[in-house]
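Reader question, answered in our methods column.
A reader sent in the components of a multi-part assembly and asked whether the whole thing could be modeled at once rather than chain by chain. We filled in our standard form and ran it. Here is what they sent:
COMPLEX SIZE: three components
ENTRIES:
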Amino acid sequence: MPELPEVETVRRGLEPAMTGAVLDRVEQRRKDLRFAFPERFAERLQGRRVTALGRRAKYLLADLDSGEVLVMHLGMTGRFTVERPGDAPSAPGDFHHAAGGNAVHDHVVFHLSNGFRITYNDARRFGFMALVERAGLEEHPLFRHVGIEPLGNALDGATLARLFAGRSAPLKAALLDQRLVAGLGNIYVCEALHRAGLSPSRAAGTLARKDGGPTARAERLATVIRDVLEEAVAAGGSTLRDYVHTDGSLGYFQHAFRVYDREGEPCPAPGCRGIVRRLVQSGRSTFFCGVCQR
DNA sequence: AAGAACTCCTGTTGGC
DNA sequence: TGCCAACAGGAGTTCT
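And here is the structure of the entire assembly that came back:
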C-alpha cells in the first residue's frame, strides 16, 4: 500500500478539489471493501461540505460539516483519481484508466459541487471507508492504538527507546507495528534500517539503554526515519505497481531506493562492499545489507 | 502477552 | 505462447 509518503501525496492531490466543496452525490457501487461500508453511507455524505482534509498515519480524514469525519484507508491498492469532466481535453479514453486502473474496481465516486469528480478504485479491496464522530476520533477503535506520527515532533531517539524497551521482536517488525510508530510500511522500514546501519533482525529492545534511555543507534534511527519520509514526500512518494497520484502521474522516490527491491545489487553505502540481500520476516520481504547493517 | 502466521482479494511477474 | 506458483506497498484476527 501506499505508506505515509504516498498517502500524504494523495492528500495533497485531493485537498484542492475537496476542501470547501459539497458532496452533491455519492455513488457506492458495492456493499463492502475490506469491511462493510457504514450504514446509509451515501445518504450521510450527500449534501455535506468538506471543511478540511487531513491525515493520521495512513488514514485520510475528510472533516464534514455534519461533525463526522470520513475516514479512508487505501489498503494495498486503493487509489483516488480527481477529474473535472467539464474541462476534460478530448483525449482518447480518460487518463484515469489509462493510468492503469480498471473501471470494474471503481467502487466509490464522489460528485462535488465544484464540478470535480473523485473516484476510488481498489483492485484488492484491502482499503476501507468509515464515518466517525470528530469529537471522539482519537478514542475510536481505529485510532485508539495508533502510534506517534513520525513527521511530528514526537519522534526522537528517546521516544523510540521507550517504545522499544524490553521488546525482543526484530527491528523490522517493531517498525512495521503501527501501534508504535504510525505510517511506516515495508519499503520505508527497509530504507530507514539501511540508512541507520541497523540489522532488520536486531532485537528492538537493544536500542534502549538499561535505564530506558536512548542509545546512539536509537538517535540515529529516529533521524533517518524522518529523513527518508521527508525525502519521499518531496518526491511525491514511490510508484512501484499500483500507486499513482490523483492526476495519474507517478511518484519518483523509487529511484532513490538504496535496498528495497534491489536484491543482488551492490550495497550503495559509501565504502561498503556488501551485496543487497532479501530475507523473509513474518511473511514479508526484507531487503538489507548484511555487511553494513548490524 | 508478545510475536508470528494466517487471512482477506486481484493482478502481475518470472520460471519453465 | 501458455500455465502456474510466488509475490505484492496493509493490518485485523488467530494461533503458539
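What stands out: Confidence is low (pLDDT under 50) at residues 90-98 of chain A. Chain A is about 25% helix and 20% strand.
Send us your own complexes using the same form.
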